[in-house]
Amino acid sequence: MKVFNCLLLFISAAWTSFGSERPNILVFLVDDMGMMDTSVPFMAGYDGQPEKHPLNELYRTPNMERLAKQGIRFSQFYANSVCSPSRVSIVRGQASARHRVTQFISPDMNNAGEFGPKDWQWEGIAPGVVTLPAILRHKGYRTIHSGKAHFGPVGSFGELPQNFGFDVNIAGCAYGQPGSYYGEDHFGFAKKGRERRAVPGLQKYHGQDIHLSEALTLEIKEAIGDAVEDEEPFFAYMSHYAVHTPFQSDERFAANYEHLDLKPNAKAFATLIEGMDKSLGDVLDELDRLGVAENTLVFFLGDNGTDAPLGDTHEIACAAPLRGKKATHYEGGLRVPFIAAWAKRNESSAVQQTLGIPANRLSDQVGTVHDIFPTILGVSGIQTKEMVDGMDLSPALVGGILDRRTEFLMHFPHQHRSSYFTSYRLGDWKAIYHYHEEGDGRYELFNLAEDRSESNNLAESRRGELRRMMRAMVEALDAADAQYPLALDGSERVLKPEIPQ
Ligand code: CA
């Protein structure tokens, strides 16, 4: 893969001055969880203060509330619109336009789409690329993967997390959704028609009345316990299959939603959220029981916007007051929850004093999935010259302001709910280019500071702003050496965004 104009990441070796104790890292990643799918208010009002919305009243996430009280959360944290691009960005530190995993990875066939670039990185994580777990493992961390992988198709190098840096792989494979969430179904192996997507490696729970979220939690707790017993620092990547489809109710929590006027799949979705939340609480409790909670830094996030089954895909419904949902170009498809916190606060802890995260703070700084890689290396005191697009979020995690421009490039030259588009945020503005619409391309332009619901398209009335934004979008795409969709006429002509007159 060609890489141009990358930022070089140099991280100071700050950690060495604080002795040999390094923080453990827990990345708690929830599949298809948007930032409104929780009782924790992540949305800031126009005054910057946390603002509760009806969806915050619907969902029950007491353990996210507990974590949020202990740390800082972001009102503007961005992921890609679908799974694999974000997952690869997390372990590589690069924007999807650069690493070229721009579509979710179909496990069995190249799903570039009819007009998509056929040589996109369908094979996901390729041999030889530098990954976050490989760096951490090299530096002495026990690297543990539990849950959904979705880093490469069947038979590829990227299929299995143990190929690119994880010591332990619990239940990770090429598939992005489980055959079944139920132990009675053997997580899919015993469910007719779902065997192909069955979750591997959990045979000991087959036939039991147990939900997948619980089985993954029990397994990662054991793996973390092993690392602690061996006195190794750990990087635990708890990647829930929940709350992705199939929306199978987590019966432990069904009674909490029975009385609501919702369709069955929306109730089931809410139980999957609560089951995931219980897992978070159980892992935090286990860290405490093992005596490592004060020394463990937790990053909670989602991998794309919500897929809640609550209404029109492209309107204000699933992520209200944000517009759109997973796989669309609107904020509801791109914004995810993000919390950073020590697993147990202790302000006199020497380790925690190296990153003094304030309690119960909502930050308005813009973070992205490709910031996770440099942030974890930064707080672990590990230097690398790896080329990344992200930056170390530490200045924002301690309550400050990031020294960079507010920017997020989301490039999608494929087909899905929204197809063949590039979305680009810069400052308060967001421009979207639709390659195949209205001849030379259709534009949308929103001022997010005034119009967070993306209800007022200013592409016609603010032509100068649109031109400026489109020039910046094209520059960002060029800098990432992005791939483009083909024209609709079958000519193999590659389309680039047009800068309007
Ligand atoms: Ca996802």
How many independent structural domains? Answer: 2
The side-by-side strand order for the widest beta sheet comes to 5-4-6-2-7-8-3-9
* Helix and strand element order: EEHHEHHHEEHEHEHEHEHEHEEEEH
**What's the architecture of the largest domain in CATH terms?**
3-Layer(aba) Sandwich
Q: What is the percentage of strand-forming residues?
A: 15-25%
The dominant shape is globular
**What characterizes the major β-sheet?**
8 strands, mixed
**Count of DSSP-assigned helices:** 12
Low-confidence stretches: 1-19
Number of strands: 14
Molecules bound to protein: calcium ion
CATH structural fold name of the largest domain: Alkaline Phosphatase, subunit A
Specify the structural class. alpha/beta
Terminal Cα separation, in Å? 34 Å
